[in-house]
Amino acid sequence: MSELKPGLCSRFTEIKNKLKEAEKSADRKEGSVELLPVSKTFGIEAIIEGVKCGMTSFGENYVQEGCYKIDLCRNLFPNNSLTWHLIGPLQSNKTRLVAERFDWVQTIDRVKIAQRLSDQRPAEMRPLNVLIEVNISNQESKSGVAPEQVRALADELLKMPNLKLRGLMCIPEPGETPEEKLIPLRAMKTLFDRLKEEGYEFDTLSMGMSGDMAEAVQAGSTMARVGTAIFGPRQYTTQG
User: Fold this and answer.
1) Sheet containing 223-226: which strands, arranged edge to edge?
2) Cα–Cα distance measured from residue 74 to residue 14, given in angstroms and rounded to the nearest whole number
3) What are the angstrom distances between the C-alpha of 82 and each of 37, 101, 137, 139?
4) What is the distance between the alpha carbons of residues 80 and 230, in angstroms, rounded to a whole number?
5) In whole angstroms, how far apart are CA 55 and each of 12, 13, 207?
6) How far is Cα 28 from Cα 30, in angstroms, rounded to an integer?
7) What are the pLDDT digits (tens) for 134-183?
C-alpha cells in the first residue's frame, strides 16, 4: 500500500477550491462537477482520514482492494453512507464481488461483464450505476469502446434490470498543452450531448484527473476523478 502523507484535509480543500475556480472560469454553476477522490493503493487509514475531512465517495481501481475497504467501512461507519466507484478494469471472475458491494462501475465496455453484474446484483440493493468507458483517443493500450460502438452497448445495458446507465467515462491520451488536452475532452462532450439529444437519459460525464481537471471542467465534465493531487504519490504493487 502507498504511504499516506500528512496534510490530506488541506490538499482536499485545495483541490475543491481549484475545482470551484475551474467552474467559475468555464462559466459553470458552482457544484456542477462532482469531485471523486481516488483512493487506490492507499490503506484504510486514508479512507478513515478522508471521511473525517468530509469525503463521502471514493474511487477504487482494484477489485479486491476496494472490496476489502468497503467491508471494513461497513463496520467502521455503520451510519455513514459512503459511495464506492470502481474505476478500473473488471474481469468476469470478479463481477460478483463488485455487484455485491460497489455503487458505481465506470468502466463498462463489454456486454458480458454488464450482464454478469446485473444478474449478480442482490435484489435488496439498488440498481448498480454504470458508465460506458469510451476509448476516445483510440489508444491500443487502453480499454473502452470506440465512439461509434457506444449506442449498441448502451442499448444492451438498458435491457438489464439491475443496472442504471448514467452516462460515459474516458481516460484520454495525455496532452502536453491545455489545447491538446481539450481535444479529446471536447470530443467526449460532443458524443455525450449527441446521445442525450437522441433520447439517452445520461446525466454523468466522468472525465478529468489530477493533470487535466481544469480542461475537463472547461470541456463539460460532470465528475472529476482526482487521486494523486489529494492522497499523494502512489507506490504500485500487484493488485487484484
Assistant:
1) 34-37, 223-226, 204-206, 163-170, 128-134, 104-108, 83-86, 57-60
2) 28
3) 12, 11, 32, 33
4) 21
5) 9, 10, 19
6) 6
7) 999 998 878 999 999 999 999 999 999 999 999 999 999 999 999 999 99
User: Does residue 165 contact residue 132 with C-beta atoms inside 8 Å?
Assistant: yes
Share of the chain above pLDDT 70, in %: 98
Q: What is the DSSP letter of 42?
A: B
Cell numbers given for 186: 471536447
Can you tell me which residue has the cell 480499454? 143
Q: Are 225 and 87 in contact (CB under 8 A)?
A: yes
H/E element, 166: strand 163-170
Nearest C-alpha neighbor of 185 from the set 165, 214, 210: 214
Query: Is pTM beyond 0.85 here?
Result: yes
Amino acid at site 220 = G
| Separation in Å, CA 92 to CA 88, 113, 120, 122, 171 | 13, 6, 11, 17, 21
